[in-house]
Here is the input.
Amino acid sequence: MGFQVYKRIGIAAWILCTIVTRQALGTAPDLGWAQHGLDHSETRFSEIDQVDTKTVRRLGLAWYKDLPRAKSLEATPLLIDGVMYFTTNDSVVFAVDGRTGSTLWSYDPEVWKVAGKRYRQVFHVNRGVAHWDGKIYVGTFDGRLIALNAKTGKQVWSVQTLEQGRVGYITGAPRTFNGKVIIGQGGTEAGYARGYVTAYDAQSGDQVWRFYVVPGNPDDGFENPAMEMAAKTWTGEWWNHGGGGSPWNALTFDPELNRVYIGTGNGSPWNHKVRSPGGGDNLFLCSIVAVDADTGEYQWHYQTNPGETWDYTSTQDIVLADMDLDGKRRQVILHAPKNGFFYVIDRVTGKLLSAEKLGTVTWAERIDLASGRPVETAGARFPEGDGLIYPSGAGLHNWHSMSFNPNTGLAYLPKLEMPMYFSEKTVDHQNWRARKYFFNTGFDLLEMEGLGDLALEGSLLAWNPQTQSRAWEVPLPGIWNGGTLSTAGNLVFQGNAGGEFAAYHAETGEKLWSTDVGLGVVAAPMTYRLDGTQYIALLVGWGGSIPSMFGLGVNEYGWQYGKQVRRLLVYVLDGNAELELAGKSPVPTPLDPPEFVIDQSVVKQGSELFNSTCQACHGYSVVAGGMAPDLRASYIAANMDSFDKVVREGALEARGMPKYADLNDAEVKQLYHYIRHRARIDLKKRSTAPQQ
Here is the structure.
């Protein structure tokens, strides 16, 4: 017994000496990036401090990797045992050497071949992979969860996580813990959708548990007491619409309490009066739901938006922290969902501790701390049938990652100031039904083109959760900016819409370093240490919902489809690699064959059809934001035969353009004439605009 004790002491002493020696020689132990948010707490705070406020000016490019087939890049890479793993669009996985960037393997799940009509849904993006015991896990856009051998990239197992016949897709990163891998899904705008999270055995792919976010048809019985409880907060026949709640991004494991916190999505459809005509809170939409990590059993919930109707999801970061509040050490959740408030929640009990506005919020006056419920403004639910609301459905903060630095006590997040015009004047609440695999909200959003005349602002915000106050804020060149990384070097790193990658002083917001990366950034950076050297990595690929849907607000940034290269960039102190940049591109000039006669009798129908089929990628009013071709200037969209081959026959399906074989001749004509109508109007506007 005594020998074993001395043996353990000796081993511990050897490990300690090794660490001290490595640090003294400048070869501190390697540190990777093991989880989507670095660790289970999802703080995105790294203890690596080789790059700090004094040395950051020496940062230079170590190496880069061109990704010519990529479009929008939203993933945070993992770094495991010297290998970096990341995804591009269409759920393609890469494994590269973390020191050199050389490709070790890549895996293409060929989503476009198997997705069918699912391929019509939104942007085909992917936010990353998970790792467990020698396997890499990726959720594919068409709904599969796939396990790959981390060394070879060979498929180990694959399961279809989406129920047969249901709409939906996967864009979020899986999470792993305790031998399990969990995944949610999106898709509330594509038709009948009932959200859920599923946990699978990480080795075999067998389902372990599933938690539904909203209740199903009561006649079918309820899966558990939580669904029975939730059903009491719904009215009408909500199950015919699905209800929604898709948990597409935020999934946080709490190892101390052995819980998973699920950030849930908006209603399906958005319009509360359609899906639940008698009112009701509609649990568990737009909530944080705590479930047992072993069984998926409900523990508690906190709902940020009872009776949600604005697309104010709570699928944004769920960050775990320990904080001193009112003289007591509390285990808390930090959460900044779309609705514009910053929440501090006791993660043991689910009790709201504080909540304050981060920026312009017109739907609510405040959050009542006694009840935990918002105090809504008089016009929040459109008593006159329409209204302009802040923030928009894109949120004051969207999925772009927030980081939390325990040393400064500050959270760092990209802030988005943008309103949305909602109208339900033409909506038949009683008889409304979603058209499957088309864009459906239960509102008329045709007036979104007015956004081009509004002041849209973006910034990097440092927020003090303890005092619920702004520490500092830095304006950014656009509204759609990348996630953040904070480090023990007292730095905050972020890429932005203007194509700049910058480092800020974590306490003051002073910009200490920046570089031109040649394209707008939406992903969050990460950092790792190999052989005593700190690296900082960033995926550069403009895209996501704003560049896809709201080109009117971003099309002048200079990022045009097919003009700039998507890349993985890795920086190091004194790096000297050179990067060739394509530069910014002008907004494309619309094509308008003067001999073509536009049939104005079908233009309005075409606009409605365009907004339910094409606008999710090609933009409201046919103004693209850089992620997809601008159809006003497309030669394909200026020729009826070519247009029909692409739209109905799928001529460009392998390149990401889904086919709509179920559209009839009249509908194709409506789309074509609407596009030509918009091109003619916009070209005329340009010719009569004052010259600068």
